[in-house]
Amino acid sequence: MKYLFAVLLFLFSRPLFAETYHFVSINYLIEQEIGRIVLPEIYKRLDIDITITPLPGKRAQFEAKTGLKHGEIMRIFSYGTETPSTVRVPTPYYYLETMAFIRKDSKIKIESVEDLKKYHIVKVRGVKHTNNITKGMKFVEDLDTTKQILRLVSAGLADVALTNRVDGLVHLDELGITNVVPIQKNLAVLELFHYIHHSQKHLVPIVNQKIIEMQHSGELAKLISQAEQQVIKNTQYFP
């Protein structure tokens, strides 16, 4: 009898979610690298282990929507509409600013999204916020990394690079480029959400509640600040 009791005690004392969950992120973007640090800490407080595989944006979306992975770590609101096989965790845990970067000597004036239509724009392939803001525009070119798009603008081979403000500033500093600057005002501020494949939707309410708790306690803000500092120190490893 005592052995049966010991077995039952072992079974019921194990974490409720013993499985490891596997998510994807977009590679080489500052905000995604911050998410790769922050999200595992959120899950850790739920006694859940996760892995995160960085991939190009379109590949990441494919693996999340088909269930090859259990979801994506960080996407904007409209991703949920475009990817109905995933469930949005309702509370955002980070944000980004869509920013245009131009040469200092270009005399380009951008005060609204409409102004972008006149220029040759470069952006990172598969990133939703820059995809959305340039939808229907003719002179848009996709590249693989933020450093590539900033180099093109610096060399005068493109007019405008679109990316997250922090992402652009950090990479400009890393590259030592001084002739490219952000415009005075961002084009959009967008909240970032965690998305989970519907096959694992049982995770959504508990992850959402933990994010809310960590926001209220100030723990999330502290984690994000630490993650930002860590990522900024390591941008030399980005291509």
UniProtKB/TrEMBL annotation:
Signal peptide (UniProt feature, chain positions): 1-18
Gene3D superfamilies xref list: Periplasmic binding protein-like II
Keyword terms of this UniProt record: Signal
Protein name as annotated: Uncharacterized protein
